[in-house]
Amino acid sequence: MNYNKWLLKNTKSLKGKTVAITGSTGGLGVHICRFLAGLGADLILLNRSRTKTESQIKELEETYNINIRFVPLDLIDMQSVKAATDFLCENCPDFLIHNAGAYSIPRFITGFGIDNVFQINFFAPYYITRRLLPFLSQKGGRVVMVGSVAHNYSKTNPDNIDFRDIKAASKAYGNAKRYLMLSLYELFEKEKGATLSVTHPGITFTNITAHYPKLIFAVIKHPMKIIFMQPKKAALCIVMGLFEKTQFGEWWGPRIFDVWGLPTKKRLSTFKKCESEAVFLNAEKYYDKFLQFLT
Description:
Helix content is 46%, strand content 15%. By secondary structure, the chain is α/β, with parallel strands linked by helices.
């Protein structure tokens, strides 16, 4: 595939714009950043690892003439999340990409009192967005969230909001992604200044898909690389989100069965309005609870 030709046709220069992205050193994040740097965007990289981020910055600066800043962010530590959000509020980007995520990891209850998978994939990104929104609105900015087909693996449960008792990684992750998608749809539905673009990469070979036991993974990793899209191509779905917003219940993703192909916008039929409204109310309750937690 000729990526430069696709970018020339479907995007435009981002020179003079700043993009903040979480999880920039991961499989998708690396390619997203290269695409954005090639379009001239300055970058704010929000990651846990200083070593990996500094290595990434060095690589990008060797090729692209852009400004890059590193902001420490550990989504499992809400004090870290608050500090990073404080920085973003003071240095508001034009775009914020919620790319970081965690799938099959050891489960525990965080210091904030919720399941860690739920906090990483839902609440921490929601908190960042919610606090940053007034500043994004002032400059007509956009939030781009990386959703997942896993959001349809299970419906939300008002009696078990964070799925702390659900052992299946696919359901816990899917529930958290569903919460973030639905809460952001509701948050932005009546927003006038800033916009939202919900995207998803389909199924691609990244650290999130590399969660199987070592022996099984050794057998399936090569077929997975052949069957599913490569991260570089899948990253185009997220890049597209910077240039095209989504309305309530829409997302950008691979055009063929949500798994293969170039980005296309589709209408979701995986939830009803009453569910998204209930999810949003819970999201706001968690947000208010955290503000009280800080004091």
